[in-house]
Amino acid sequence: MSPTEEDVRLLARTDEWDGPEPTVANVGSLVLKQGLDFATALIFRQLSRRQANAEYLHEARTKRFRPPNDLVLGIVPGAFYREHGHTGADGARVLSIARELGIAAELIPTAGFGTLADNARILLQWIAARRGARVALVSLSKGGADVKHALSLPGAGEAFADVDAWVSLSGMMLGTPLIAWLRRQPMRWRVIRFLLWLRGHSRDTLDDLRHGPGAPLGRWPSLPLHMRVVHVCGFPLERHLVHRWAPRAYARLAPLGPNDGGGNLLADILDYPGIVCPVWGADHYLAPRWDAVPLLTQIIASALAPRQASQSAPHPSAPPASRSSA
């Protein structure tokens, strides 16, 4: 992608910033004083310049990685993936990337809007059925929450013993403040719950996806030390939004700070464990006006390739708890 002149000027302003680095705690003040766009760019800069992230992205872009032929890639789909393939939640793009890389890939048949508990059970059954094989996971949006919940369950360390890598694309890792927004619209809340019931989806999943202290996804579990974890996250400004659903979500979350137009607050990503690959100019759906497939292919191939000592990425055994207050 070639940033526009406007983007270049904005990102250049962050090089001159001598104020505090953005955090979950101070992002509101930062937006108030400097504006939403500048806060977005500043969080992007901070994540891009972290040594582990910068090194990973440099290698992914400049080296040719080839995943092992015996690897089995499990794709954990996003919400409503059967009804709304246009969001990319069905994993079709990842299946195409897997074919290009010459590896076997399967869509894990989680429920389209299943509870964290139900979808984690399906995921663990899928992994257990491939015991002894080399396994990797790519999750999409809510699928990231399903993987995260599975990692929090008793025995997760043994269950994930054969999982070499997990790549999360726009993972809804801490839930979404959109649930609280919906609750503040009583009529809309009732209609959404009715439609979920009518279409056979669990309404309990709405509670699973709450955001903030005490929410089901509010804390990170310990992650297996052997498993490479890579998060790919879109960093859009309002003018970058492409998917037809993104502008509404972006506007609803803008009072809380920079967001990806799909439910994630960008400041939360500062506390994600593992590697973070921020993608400037892409919204939650990672399908910007420029072709993002080559970049996604490079990032996924790098994550799935056999690890060398010089490429080892940090994976804290006790990841930070979410400090979000939204």
What does this molecule look like?
The chain is built from 13 helices and six strands. It has a single domain (51-307), classed as Alpha/Beta hydrolase fold, catalytic domain (Rossmann fold, 3-Layer(aba) Sandwich), CATH 3.40.50.1820. Strand 1, helix 5 and strand 2 form a beta-alpha-beta unit. Helix 1 (5-15) packs across helix 3, helix 2 (27-34) crosses helix 3 (36-49) and helix 5 (92-101) crosses helix 13 (293-304). The relative contact order is 0.17. The protein is globular and about 55 Å long. It has helices spanning 5-15, 27-34, 36-49, 51-62, 92-101, 116-128, 142-152, 156-159, 178-183, 186-198, 204-208, 246-253, 293-304, and strands spanning 71-76, 104-107, 134-140, 163-169, 228-235, 275-280. The chain is of the alpha/beta class and 326 residues long.
Write down the overall geometry. Answer: globular
| DSSP, total strands | 6
Beta-strand share of residues = 5-15%
Roughly what is the average pLDDT, rounded to an integer?
A: 93
- Integer-rounded radius of gyration: 19 Å
Structural class assignment: alpha/beta
**Order of helix and strand elements from N to C terminus:** HHHHEHEHEHHEHHHEHEH
The low-confidence parts are 309-318, 321-326
Specify the CATH architecture: 3-Layer(aba) Sandwich
Percentage of residues assigned to helices: 25-40%
**What is the count of helical runs?**
13
**Gap from first CA to last CA:** 32 Å
